[in-house]
Amino acid sequence: xxxxxxxxxxxxxxIPKENFPKCLVGKWKNSAVHSESTxxxxxxxxxxxxxxxxxxxxxxxxxxxxxxYDPFCxxxxxxxxxxxxNRNIIANDLSIYAYVITHAKLFPYLSLKKAFxxxxxxxKQAKMFIPSVDLRKIPQWVRLFFNSKTLRETIAWSQILxxxxxxxxxxxxxxILHHQRPGxxxxxxxxxxPYLREKKYPRNLYPExxxxxxxxxxxxxxxxxxxxxxxxxxxxxxxxxxxxxxxxFIPNQKVNAIITSPPYMRQLDYGRDNRLRLWxxxxxxxxxxxxxxxxxxxxxxxxxxxxxxxxxNILLPNGLCILVVGDTYSRxxxxxxxxxxxxxxxxxxxxxxxxYKYTELIPNDRRVRRGCNGSLTETILVFRKD
Length: 386
Ligand SMILES: C[S@@+](CC[C@H](N)C(=O)[O-])C[C@H]1O[C@@H](n2cnc3c(N)ncnc32)[C@H](O)[C@@H]1O
Description:
The protein has helices spanning about 50-60, 75-85, 95-105, 110-130, 140-145, 150-165, 165-175, 215-225, 275-280, 285-295, 295-310, 335-350, and strands spanning about 65-70, 90, 240, 255-260, 315-325, 330, 335, 350-360, 375-385. The chain has about 375 residues and is of the alpha/beta class. The chain folds into two domains: about 15-110 and about 240-275 and about 295-385, Vaccinia Virus protein VP39 (Rossmann fold), CATH 3.40.50; about 110-225, no CATH class. Strands 3-2-1-4-5-9-8 form a seven-stranded mixed beta sheet, sandwiched between helices. The site of S-adenosylmethionine has 24 residues, from α2.
């Protein structure tokens, strides 16, 4: 573990000066799965931030009632933790899948009864919709994942929920879309990224895994799991969820802090890896989406420069810009990404001072792929608008 302090000011932080910068060291080492709110587990997202890390960053660097903006919100981890900690939140992501999950986390049903009433209403509409679903119009790669009766039903449910903007139930449906467990809808496949596991579970040996799976009972069980651990949440706080390009989007109010983890240099493919869920949301062309939301190096560098310029107009005076980035290497700059960002923010774009830099090893079980194991470390960079 490398605790790397460059210079600091304790002006904005909820921590005594003598404890700074140790405040974040090792705070999110252990698994959060059994302690975090189960709302975080509504649907998987590759590259998701650990909720305990989001919590510590928000608690350390911001205050109650502050307005926080996450321009690359992904599955809304920062957004939900911010709300939980009584902050106002503006969350944004260009992917409709990210938008739908984040919206669900910011506007959840907090009682099973309300959620089940909504499910019953949607069930009636889905039943009427099913006969009009023509599987011949569905691409083969999607059909390969499902029993045809389950697929027809799942399409009907997703269309109805999408048209009603019922994003909490829709996200729950996406959360059970593919896996091999009995509570899921697909043929045996992986959970986060959609790959069929027909070799491991051949049809002749596991016929039950290929049978029809009714949607409603699985959806209800999923909602029960999601609402198992829900913290107290203040409905009066401002929560906004948007689907805009972060490079030039300016929210309608200034913010105390921008806290985000950007899509660093094509280490992950947010379109490809979510392709099946995106398809059910009406996004049929994940390849062209990836060209925008999973940018390669030079596009990423351009995007980030323009974000830093835009964010100058969004941050309140002395506002903080907090970025969590991996150690990907930039060939163009011949440096690691955190150093590139420091140079951009303080020199090339300018207008920001770096007040904190902290690097921690990513444990093996949390590392994500791309041939090798992806980033070995994660760095938290804290800048203050000059
Ligand atoms: C590292 S992920 C964020 C993960 C998030 N912190 C979480 O916990 O789930 C980066 C996100 O940036 C989004 N994205 C990429 N380019 C974007 C752009 N130009 N504007 C808005 N969002 C973008 C991607 O869709 C992806 O969800």
